[in-house]
Amino acid sequence: MARSPETEARLRAALEGHEGISEKPMMGAVCFFLDGNMVGCADLGDGDGRFMFRVGKAAQDDALAQPGAEPAILGGRRMGGLIFVAAGACDAAALRDWTARALDFARTLPPK
């Protein structure tokens, strides 16, 4: 993964105003957390930028049916409950929806 400042800024803005949000560089990208639990990250992807959202395994099939969504595969391994979404397929409304999905899942987890 490589950093995409533009995609990072979009995700940061979408998470602005939510209590308990932090960020940390990880895996060559910037990951965002709610009370210590990963919500998602932003990276360069194939060059146009992409988001990764943690929606949980129970919600991944529904999430994969959304436009621009694909399974998160890192190091040849499919990461259960994580979804990549192309930045170009994620307008402002879609980004709000994806962030809400990820925040909803993170809220089900105990704080770290």
TrEMBL record:
Domain TfoX N-terminal residues, every copy: 15-106
InterPro entries: TfoX_N
Lineage top rank: taxon: Bacteria
The protein, known as: TfoX/Sxy family protein
